[in-house]
């Protein structure tokens, strides 16, 4: 029977000592100073009532750390998840309306259930379907779209060349102060300080009374658990695809923080446990009347830098966020332009144009995939999830093309004693009657046809060949199709009186072939454990000159 801590991971947390309590409360307070204004700003980005941002930073954050595999990480609203919510619901309802809120709740519930099931059934590997180049293209485009969407609120733009001068002053002033603080005072709680300064200025200059856009009145009580309102089946059907994408993208966003935290701690990342923790966090957010959450890289980095050691720091953050709800009236006069500045500052870290240059230097195909994902995401706005889906399809297509066209080369003996591509390095054949070949791939259903075609075509052009040597060290796996292909090739070679030599075959491949009865010496098949052994054997058959075989040894 599994121990209780398997189901309740937080039971493994260390007991609080006075020293631990002090450090965790200190770290939690520092994170809360960033989390409170960010949560309100991200709620605006998601088109949700502003107070739901604080709700998303309470119970979901607590559940996420209690059932997650990586402690010290900050679960709550994030820019990327919020823009996906806004993009999904745009055109389906009015932002902030009851229908919009209900659909956002269902997005959180669906995405959370999917992540929970993926973690429970240990299917975290499915996240590998979204490659790094696809995420690079998508996040860059999403960041650009987020910044563009916040410019009207930041500048007070009212159409044409008309601007609300006070809003423009508050927005640009806040952004300038935040950028200066990021450059020269990165350890300061700059966001909270800017919110406080701008809120005070707004109050002193009666900004709200003159019609300026401010946060306004927020509920000052804790969230109540709700039962999501049942929506029409056709509406729910439209949310399934985006919910799947939110589940995948938000967890990839969380993975970057989790990997960093585990590397610093020298521990192994428990991806499936974190999947369950993040899934439960989204479900808790839905029942709190809020939207889908994720792990924030910036807040998690601040938590680590502030000295957070365990999940108790997250509990402390939640406590301070809960207390901030009772001080919500103090946010009344904060201009909404300040929220736009906060979002732009946070999202600016997503813009890394040099990432495309680096990708181009590494792989032009993957760089093209990333650039196309970037372009499709921009063109499909507000339905930006089409960019990720298109990128995934392009990535899978390249993956299949690579596996359907494996690297198969004729090898020759290099001066350094290694076997290399004979044509690339302009090497002589191993011997006049030997065709030596190597396939750098698995011999499975995807590669078998190419392997058979390669050998058949080359042997047709080389009627004098008496020996075919397959250097099989790179072949890690073989399936039924591969076995059948090798069987047909062996028969084809045997009909021409050609002997087959296989060098460096790995145990799983050898086992499969032996079970199929394909490695019998009487069938003209010769096995060698090492390449040097194979070359010695070929020399004994007078197929190799003595001096060349000696170099290989």
Strand order of the largest sheet: 4-3-5-6-7-8
Total strands: the figure is 8
Seen as an oligomer or otherwise, the chain set is single chain
First-last Cα distance: 55 Å
What percentage of residues falls in helices of 4 or more residues? 55-70%
Shape: elongated
Main sheet properties: 6 strands, mixed
Unreliable sequence segments: 546-553
Supply the helix-strand structural class. mainly alpha
Please, what is the average pLDDT? 90
Order of helices and strands: HHHHEHHHHHHHEHHHHHHEEEHEHEHEHH
SS strand fraction: 5-15%
Question: Any overview of this molecule?
Answer:
- By secondary structure, the chain is mainly α.
- It has 22 helices and 8 strands.
- α21 (531-540) packs antiparallel against α22.
- Residues 546-553 have low confidence and may be disordered.
Give the SSE layout.
Elements: H1 4-7, H2 18-45, H3 51-56, H4 59-67, E1 75-76, H5 79-89, H6 98-120, H7 132-155, H8 165-184, H9 190-204, H10 233-265, H11 271-287, E2 294-295, H12 297-305, H13 312-326, H14 336-347, H15 354-362, H16 364-379, H17 385-404, E3 408-413, E4 419-421, E5 434-439, H18 448-461, E6 467-471, H19 480-495, E7 499-503, H20 507-515, E8 525-528, H21 531-540, H22 546-552
Parallel strand pairs: 5-6, 6-7, 7-8
Antiparallel strand pairs: 1-2, 3-4, 3-5
Helix pairs in contact: 2-9, 2-12, 2-13, 2-14, 4-11, 5-10, 6-10, 6-11, 7-14, 7-16, 7-17, 8-9, 8-14, 10-11, 10-12, 15-16, 16-17, 18-19, 21-22
